[in-house]
Every structure is written in structure tokens, then in C-alpha cells.
């Protein structure tokens, strides 16, 4: 219990430190972009492993994950402290550099697996390992390959490619800031607002709780950009209610899952998608958001139509879940004004930072 409490305290301290650092960085660029990415990656890895340590039920796993958090901190600190030296000896790294590089790669792959499942790290490994096989293959599968040492250097020690490429830049400069924004919105009642709004709209349709799931997932997903967070927040309320009025359990879960997935394509946050597209293509983020609105609304419209048709087909009746109008009235300005301000400023050409 004491170890769990210590891990929880450390998660809080590092999360607050990471937030404070990023909020300072958007006003004063206290270090160059490459070192900023190193700091962001270090914070992220430490928090992933500390959070996993806090949630682990077995003492051995808890302490092992805590050790991984310490190694993450040490490797990131090494890159920060020896940044200039690492730049000067690009592709001619020392043995210690190589060990740090390998550790960062392994820690990042494991952190990705813990956060997103096996698919993303498996794809990354496939891309990295392919050249070592590809230069033995005939055309059109043939490709050139660097040495193992140079590959490790490219992936983790050059500060331009591999771990420090477009995805990390998008995470550090855009996604994390929107996560903070979404966290603040949730703390001041955004979730309650969207759930009450869903009750208001759902009570007008035969599909009732299913429509509520679609509306609430659209609202919550637009500020979290995370399927898991969306399902956790809205599913705990909508799935039991759907089952209660007659939807089959697997149907209720599928409706909530489909609705929660849509949150990733609904502006402004949209997970990593919009920021990665902006970074790779050079198209302004606000333009990508504008182009995403109609497909996202069509997605939720189709999901809502399916829910309504299923309700009619199964003759599901819903007496209605009365919304809390006072809650809606008092939280609406707090939720809607920041959205309007952010969209207006982005439209005027301001960066996310």
C-alpha cells in the first residue's frame, strides 16, 4: 500500500512538472527544439512506467516498472547533459552512447506497447528490421541497409530522425497541450455537460441511450482524442443504460465502441492524426480540422441512424432520462467559450502553442 501511494505521488509530481514545463516552453523557448523533444520524451517514458507501477498488483512487477522509470529518467538526462557532444560525434558514438541509444529504443517500444497495444511497436520493429533483410532480397524488394551501429544512432542519438521525428514533435508541440486543455475542461465539468446534453437529445429519440452514447462520445471525444478515455468516461454511463432498455450487451458495447472511435476524427483534438498530417504535409492544422468536420459529422450521423433503426427493429422503448437543465445552463459557457476562442485564434493564424 505504501509503495502504491509513493508511485501515485510520483506520478502526480512528474505530471505537474511536465505540464508546468510545457506551459513555460510555449511562452519562452528555454531550449532548442531538439532538446525540447528529448525532455518531452523523457517525461513521457517516466510517466508511462510510473503509472504502470502504480496500477500493478504484484510487488515484483511494481518495483521492476519503477526501475524502468528510473532508467528512462537516466537515459533522457544523459541525452540532455551530453547534447552538444552527441551532436559533434554523430555516427561516431561511444559505447556508452550506444547503450543509452539501445535502452531508449527498447523503453520507447515497451511504453508504446503498454499504451497502445502490440500493433504500433510491431510495425515500428518491422520497418527498422526490414533493411537488414531487404538487402538480401531481389528487386523490387531490395533495399540498402546501414550498419547496426549507425541504425541505432539514427534512431535515438541524432535528434533528427527515429524517436525524434515528426510524431514526437507533434506530441510535444500540439497533442500534449490539447491533453492539458482537455484535462482542464473535464475538471471544470465538460464531461457532465456532454452527458446532460446527450440526455436532452436522447430523450427525443426511440434509440434513447444509444443516441446518448453517440452524442456524449462525440463531445467527450472531441476534447480527449482518446478512444480508451472516451469509452471509460461515457461507456460507464451509457452501456448499462442501453442494456437496461433492451439492447443486447454486445450491441451496447459495439455502439459505444463505434461512437468513441469517432471522437478521434472530430476536431479540435483528433488524437495524433491532425497534428501528424500537419507536420508531414505542411497543411495548416486549422485547415485539416475544417476538412475533418464534415466526415466526422457524417460518421456520427450514420452511427446515430444505425442506433435508431436498431431501436425500431427491436421495438426498444425509452421513457427518457431527464437532463439537469441547471447543470447545462451553468456549464455551457465554461465549455463552449474556450472552444470558440481556440477555433477563432487558430483561424486568425495563431499556432497551437
Describe this structure in words.
- The protein is mostly helical.
- Helices cover 76% and strands 0% of the residues.
- It has 15 helices and no strands.
- Helix 9 (190-202) crosses helix 15 (325-347).
- The longest helix is centred in the last third of the chain and has 29 residues, at 285-313.
Give the number of DSSP strands.
Answer: 0
Residue ranges: pLDDT <50 for 5 or more in a row?
Answer: none
Number of helices: 15
Distance from N terminus to C terminus (CA atoms, Å) equals: 39 Å
Concise summary:
This protein is mostly helical and 353 residues long. It has helices spanning 2-25, 33-55, 59-81, 83-88, 95-116, 119-134, 148-156, 166-187, 190-202, 209-224, 227-245, 249-262, 273-281, 285-313, 325-347. The chain is globular and about 70 Å long.
Which features characterize this protein?
353 residues, mainly alpha, 15 helices, globular
Give me the secondary-structure topology.
Blueprint: H1 2-25, H2 33-55, H3 59-81, H4 83-88, H5 95-116, H6 119-134, H7 148-156, H8 166-187, H9 190-202, H10 209-224, H11 227-245, H12 249-262, H13 273-281, H14 285-313, H15 325-347
Amino acid at each position: 500500500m505504501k509503495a502504491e501511494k509513493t508511485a501515485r505521488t510520483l506520478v502526480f509530481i512528474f505530471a505537474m512538472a511536465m505540464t508546468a514545463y510545457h506551459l513555460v516552453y510555449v511562452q519562452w523557448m528555454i531550449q532548442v527544439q531538439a532538446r525540447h523533444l528529448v525532455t518531452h520524451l523523457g517525461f513521457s517514458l517516466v510517466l508511462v512506467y510510473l503509472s504502470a507501477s502504480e496500477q500493478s498488483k504484484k510487488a515484483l512487477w511494481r518495483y521492476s516498472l519503477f526501475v524502468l522509470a528510473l532508467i528512462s529518467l537516466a537515459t533522457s538526462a544523459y541525452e540532455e547533459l551530453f547534447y552538444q557532444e552527441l551532436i559533434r560525434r554523430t555516427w561516431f558514438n561511444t559505447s556508452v552512447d550506444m547503450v543509452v541509444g539501445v535502452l531508449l529504443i527498447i523503453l520507447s517500444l515497451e511504453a508504446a506497447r503498454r499504451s497502445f497495444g502490440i500493433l504500433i511497436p510491431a510495425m515500428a520493429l518491422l520497418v527498422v528490421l526490414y533493411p537488414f533483410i531487404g538487402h538480401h532480397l531481389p528487386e523490387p524488394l531490395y533495399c540498402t541497409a546501414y550498419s547496426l551501429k549507425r541504425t541505432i544512432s539514427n534512431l535515438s542519438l541524432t535528434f533528427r530522425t527515429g524517436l525524434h521525428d515528426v510524431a514526437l514533435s507533434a506530441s510535444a508541440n500540439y497533442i500534449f497541450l490539447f491533453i492539458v486543455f482537455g484535462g482542464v475542461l473535464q475538471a471544470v465539468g465538460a464531461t457532465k455537460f456532454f452527458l446532460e446534453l446527450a440526455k436532452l437529445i436522447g430523450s427525443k429519440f426511440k434509440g434513447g441511450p444509444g443516441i446518448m452514447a453517440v452524442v456524449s462520445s462525440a463531445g467527450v471525444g472531441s476534447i480527449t482524442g482518446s478512444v480508451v478515455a472516451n469509452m471509460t468516461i461515457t461507456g460507464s454511463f451509457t452501456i448499462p443504460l442501453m442494456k437496461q432498455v433492451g439492447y443486447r450487451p454486445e450491441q451496447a458495447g459495439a455502439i459505444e465502441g463505434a461512437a468513441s472511435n469517432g471522437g478521434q476524427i472530430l476536431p479540435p483534438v483528433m488524437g495524433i492524426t491532425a497534428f501528424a498530417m500537419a507536420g508531414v504535409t505542411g497543411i495548416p492544422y486549422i485547415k485539416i480540422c475544417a476538412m475533418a468536420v464534415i466526415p466526422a459529422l457524417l460518421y456520427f450521423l450514420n452511427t446515430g441512424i444505425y442506433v435508431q433503426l436498431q431501436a425500431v427493429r427491436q421495438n426498444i422503448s425509452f421513457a427518457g432520462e431527464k437532463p439537469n437543465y441547471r447543470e447545462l445552463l451553468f456549464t455551457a459557457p465554461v465549455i463552449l467559450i474556450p472552444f470558440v476562442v481556440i477555433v477563432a485564434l487558430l483561424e486568425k493564424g495563431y499556432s497551437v502553442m
